Structure formats: structure tokens, C-alpha cells
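Database export, one record per block. Field names are fixed; values are copied verbatim from the stored entry.
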Amino acid sequence: MAKKISNRTHNASGLKMSGKKNRPPAGYFDAQEIQDEIFRKMPADRKIKLASELTMFCLKLNHLNGNYKSGKTSS
């Protein structure tokens, strides 16, 4: 279950908040909260497709990184 903003103990920069003066303004959302909201509203089939695309992207990056470290070139 997602926490409400008023229950947060850390601000967007990861620093611990204490007292009213350090609370984010009303209606304030950090990037993670916005991303979570978008993902919550996304249909399941789109989430699966996105996960598949991200997996393929990561595998390609890993392959390229391995070739870079070993000095190999891909054609």
C-alpha cells in the first residue's frame, strides 16, 4: 500500500524530514511518486510489454559493456 505524502519521513533528495518547516508543500510530488502513479494506472499487458523491452535493452547494454571492456568490436 502506498504511503500518503503526510506520512513520508524523507524528502525528494532523500534527507530525513523533521517538523512542519521541512515538509514538502501541499500537492507536491517527487519524480518517484509521479512514476508510481503512472505505473499504477498502466494496464497489465502494457506493463508486461514494457518489462520485456527493458529486459532486452539491459541485455544489449550488458553485451555492449562486455565488448567494450574486453576490447572486442561487434559488427
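Remark 1: The mean pLDDT is 76.
Remark 2: The two ends are 47 Å apart (CA to CA).
End of record.
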